[in-house]
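Predict structure. Chain length: 254.
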Amino acid sequence: MIKAAFFDIDGTLLSFTTHRVSAGTIRAFDRLHKVGIRTFLSTGRPDVLIPKMPVTFEAKITMNGGLVFTPNKVLLSNPIPDKELQAWLDIAKDKNLCTMIFTENNMFLAQPNEVGLRLRNQLEFEMPPVVEIDRMRSETAYQIIAIMPGEMDSTVAASLPHCRLPRWHPYFTDIVAHNNSKAHGMEAICQHFGIRQEETLAFGDGANDIEMLEWAGIGVAMGNADEKVKQHADRLTTDVDNEGIENAVNEILL
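Prediction complete.
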């Protein structure tokens, strides 16, 4: 019996085309709540970049599991080790790479470029305050956005041994502490609410959703997900612009 459902934002709850939650998704949430299924958010975004949506969540997994909280309590907090932050800033400064960092309550951007602006436009979020890159060194970062090509990932990862790089977009990769993941955040929420792993349902589309889909009792990949992501899901549904969440919920709750 499903007792909890977890949802990614970009490409899952929000269309990359409309940047909105569909009418079918709203109907799906209503149906889940009517049968007593709790709903939770699971995103790579920090709380400051989570838009208002016409659906509700009892807790949020943010920054790929770096910070997990209910409205009244922090359930999990695991920032990037300071040594790794300094190492990344050294690389970004040397290579003149655009980068963002997310702290508990703020976000900062350094060395903006055209690729960073395209990313902002695609995800439709407000541009963070622009600062000198050395200004970031004194912050406690839960997540780094490294705007760089995929061929750099292995080199950067070798310089950050206590971090992982869950890339889900061709423009950039996230950088988070090694043991942070959406699955780790799900585990913290389930422990808090007394929910068993097999009683969970999860929806996602990106590479940073793979651990979440694998951990869930039922992992559902959106139709617009990468083929690699689909291979780790228990079920496939239609894409975000064709009521993928509603179609899956209706099938699962038959």
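Summary: The longest helix spans residues 82-95.
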